[in-house]
UniProtKB/TrEMBL annotation:
GO terms for molecular function: phosphorelay sensor kinase activity. This is histidine kinase. Its EC number is 2.7.13.3. It comes from Longimicrobium terrae. The lineage of its organism: Bacteria, Pseudomonadati, Gemmatimonadota, Longimicrobiia, Longimicrobiales. PROSITE patterns: HIS_KIN.
Length: 395
């Protein structure tokens, strides 16, 4: 069994060498600017001032911000605050802030004999209080800048992953072999079973329409994802005939839950291609969705050829799914792949349970239940009855 849990992206803060250079240049310019301001203010006040003295006091203070700046960027990348993690990670950032304030106070005390910030050095406690007053807000700004980089990187990666998924779906739908086999299946049914041929055409149209309508969308309702998957499976079953059987086990309570767009189709495609296709007798694909406390569990299982223990089923579909889940949910998701030779493969995904009409996470208990209105229930019944009917035909 292989299991992964989401981890922070590794490309948000960019190349560290670039950031060390950029931060060093920034704080050097800040030191020069501060020295210039000191000279102008001193001359206006009629006091003597030289660039040497101004730089000797202003530049060290600016350069001492280079390590805290890099620390702020690193902590924002390593411990990013979001609505899922801020309660757990806020104390970490607070502890680092205190450490930075005390460290700068200690540096001032240690370097003051050479630099001369204070004519008479006050007690260390007063230096710490002054450091807290002067440095806290600036450090928080640096942490905010680090988070802006993290969120920008996440948004960019999500767009790239979604574009890749949509492109894969379009390639699947427009793949010459896919269209050739689909049209052949439709042709075979035109005279013998015209109703089936008509439905096949409708399903192919639904595949194309769904992908175009949801272009650029990260998450959709589970019922929309199941409609798309049912259309895809109905076409695939026409190609595989009785070799492909499908079983649906969908909890109606989660039908309005949010799931990543096109999250199930690549997994089902892998199950058919690698699990069912190689078997002369075919096999069964099982799709399940249920609630597990405050989480949504999705399962795609095939009763096909399976895989050797210790090895993971690879492919663009699975790797793309892992990357998209990592970008969308971070550490809030899990994905498990389990299989054995001759016993098929099971992919199990868990996500935060959220309804499509709610912005916040859904906690446990009744408050966290997915609310289904009467019209939604009718729509849901249509989806599930269609899935059930399809299952019966497969058998």
């Amino acid at each position: 069994m292989t299991r992964t849990r989401g981890t922070p992206s590794t490309s948000h803060a960019g190349h560290w060498g670039f950031w060390w250079a950029a931060v060093s240049v920034w704080w050097t310019l800040d030191g020069v600017t501060a020295a210039g301001s000191y000279i102008r203010m001193a001359r206006k006040a009629g006091e003597p001032a030289t660039w040497g003295h101004a730089l000797s006091t202003g530049m060290p203070s600016a350069l001492m911000w280079i390590p805290p700046t890099m620390l702020a960027l690193w902590t924002a990348r390593r411990f990013p605050l979001d609505r899922h993690s801020w309660r757990r990670l806020a104390p970490v950032h607070a502890a680092i802030l205190v450490a930075v304030v005390v460290a700068r106070a200690a540096a001032v005390v240690a370097l003051n004999p050479w630099i001369g910030w204070y004519d008479v050095l006050p007690p260390f406690r007063e230096v710490v209080v002054t450091s807290f007053a002067n440095n806290t807000f600036l450090y928080l700004i640096l942490v905010g800048f680090g988070h802006a980089l993290v969120y920008a990187g996440r948004a960019r990666d999500r767009e790239e992953q979604l574009a890749s998924a949509e492109l894969s779906a379009l390639k699947m739908q427009l793949h010459p072999h896919f269209l050739f086999n689909t049209l052949n299946a439709i042709t075979a049914f035109v005279r013998t079973e015209p109703l089936v041929a008509e439905r096949m055409i409708a399903r192919l149209s639904e595949l194309l329409r769904h992908t175009l309508q949801h272009a650029g969308v990260h998450e959709v309702a589970l019922e929309d994802e199941l409609r798309f998957l049912r259309s895809y499976l109905e076409i695939e079953q026409a190609r595989f005939d009785e070799r492909l059987r499908v079983r649906w086990d969908i909890d109606p309570a989660v039908i309005r839950a949010r799931v990543p767009h096109l999250i199930l189709q690549p997994l089902v495609e892998n199950a058919i291609r690698h699990g069912i296709g190689p078997r002369a007798a075919g096999g069964r694909v099982e799709i399940e969705a249920r609630r597990r406390g405050v989480r949504l569990e999705l399962v795609v299982r095939d009763r096909g050829v399976g895989m050797d223990p210790g090895t993971a089923r690879t492919g663009v579909g699975l790797s793309n799914t892992r990357a998209r889940l990592r970008q969308l949910y971070g550490a809030q998701h899990t994905i498990e792949v389990q299989g054995a030779p001759g016993r098929g493969v099971e992919i199990r995904i868990t996500l935060p349970l959220r309804a499509t009409d709610e912005e916040d996470d859904m906690p446990g208990g009744d408050h966290g239940a997915v609310r289904v209105t009467a019209p939604e229930a009718e729509m849901m019944a249509g989806v599930l009855s269609g899935a059930a009917a399809y299952d019966e035909e497969a058998r």
